[in-house]
Design brief:
With about 525 residues, this protein is α/β, with parallel strands linked by helices. About 35% of the residues lie in helices and about 20% in strands. The protein folds into two domains: about 220 residues, Aldehyde Dehydrogenase, Chain A, domain 1, CATH 3.40.605.10; about 180 residues, 3-Layer(aba) Sandwich (Aldehyde Dehydrogenase, Chain A, domain 2), CATH 3.40.309. A seven-stranded mixed β-sheet has the order 17-19-20-15-14-21-22, with helices on both faces. A five-stranded mixed β-sheet has the order 23-8-7-24-25, with no helix packed on it. The longest helix has 30 residues. The two termini are about 50 Å apart. The chain binds NADP nicotinamide-adenine-dinucleotide phosphate.
Length: about 525
Amino acid sequence: MITGKNYIGNTLSATGNVRYQTFNPIENKANDPVFTEATAAEIDRAAVLARQAFSTFSKLSNRRRSEFLNCIADEIMSLDETLIKMYCAESGLPEGRAIGERGRTIGQLKSFAALVSQGDWVEATIDHGDPNRRPLAKPDLRKMYIPIGPIAVFGASNFPLAYSTAGGDTAAALAAGCPVIVKSHPMHAGTGELVASAVIKAAEKTGMPNGVFSNLNSRGIEVGKQLVSHEFIKGVGFTGSIKGGRALYDIAAQRKEPIPVFAEMGSINPVLMFPKALANRANELAKTYAHSITLGTGQFCTNPGLILGIKGEALQTFSNQLAHEILQIEPGCMLHPNIHHAYEQLKEIASTQRGTVVLANSKDQILANHAHQAVVFVPGEIFLNNPTLHQEVFGPFSLIVACEDVMQLTQIIDNLEGQLTGTIISDDNEIVHYKSAVDALERRVGRLIFNGVPTGVEVCPAMNHGGPYPASTDSRFTAVGIHSIRRWVRPISFQDWPDELLPDVLKENNPLGIIRTVDGRIEVKH
Ligand code: NAP
């Protein structure tokens, strides 16, 4: 049952008077539950509880934290149909997507549970001392990762489960030993409350300290701003727009104690289509890309929003074919009227820039909140000199750029902002003629794809989901996969500490049997 209240630690609370509802974009009407925005006092209470919880939660054994994460996964599963129905009602996304995203969320929680139970993730490193070293004795030094403190998590509208309440950021922070306060996304507050109830149930069942998790409702941006400004918050995980991520980054930097903000933001995901590949398989590529551009009604951060080719017949044929294929696809529903409105506006701005040619964009009447997909074409020179065309159009949109030659292609890539992904479409080893462009792409992106599509982010340890700014605020870290835990930890060294006082992972006889680096060698204890 949805209460519309905040979870301040384990307690439901609604002392404020700002109320709001979520919206069903398919039925084009508000959903029934009414949510109450968190007050300044409730935000403060959540932060105080999180700080108190941190002292015990951060010291819990790997086994206990792992149990907690697995239990969250089980409790989410037991929400069953109620969760799936609420997800669909608040997002307009189909049931299959809801089930898939729930599976991904569960998988993420379980992979962090497994990581924590193994224990190696602390990267224990030991350099034994040498009292006989001259001229100075060498101290005994032992290093490991420890959690940084309570984390504020902001999820995006387009992933109500996998990048939200108990999504990747929360799972990674809890795994590291950091309490989490979620700033619930106003567009899926009901989905958020259901998942929060599962996290709280799991916390109670597995004996976690009160305050290890809180969920704050918010209608606007004030709750998030206050949360990031709170002195007890020590890090921020954000998934959303560049505007939102940048605003929070600036607030965090201006605090008396600045804190890290790991913001995963927008991207137009350039795709380089080389001439031989286009000549060999224009039709197949057009079908594949029409599907990728419209997947989830284009509401993916990895949507291929920019296709770069060398001008000529092959690119022209592909462009016409893509326009044809994309118009065969039924327009999909967008997440919310505001997102739909922003899409139509940004599409209009991009389509009316000087020198652009609209290849596909139906004007037919469609259902409310549904989006007409669009393909626009522009010469390289014009694209290069018009930064408006470099901006993300969040929705089923892609811009094709016809470059003069490999030099202009390279120059265009060098002038792009940082991106999550870059894709190469190449046949018959033609890639060797485009080395400068490929090298430029490597400098601009977090993931390079060969002969594929950028949509679809596999969750596994080798995945990097991030990239140079503004794809993310810190390109050294991934937001997806187990290594994303590194965002929520810091290294600490123990110098000449008595063995019995060291954390187990650093004790001389390696009681947990974890993989460590000892005097420069990998130590594996069975
Ligand atoms: P959004 O409007 O930025 O919202 C994300 C969250 O940030 C919301 O909770 C929002 O609160 C909050 N927020 C926004 N501006 C804020 C500000 N100035 N101060 C404080 N809080 C603020 O993004 P969205 O529309 O939900 O998501 C779509 C965007 O996310 C797209 O650009 C997409 O590319 C990106 N995205 C990126 C990734 C990735 O991994 N890189 C994944 C998915 C989506 P309010 O709603 O209350 O304003």
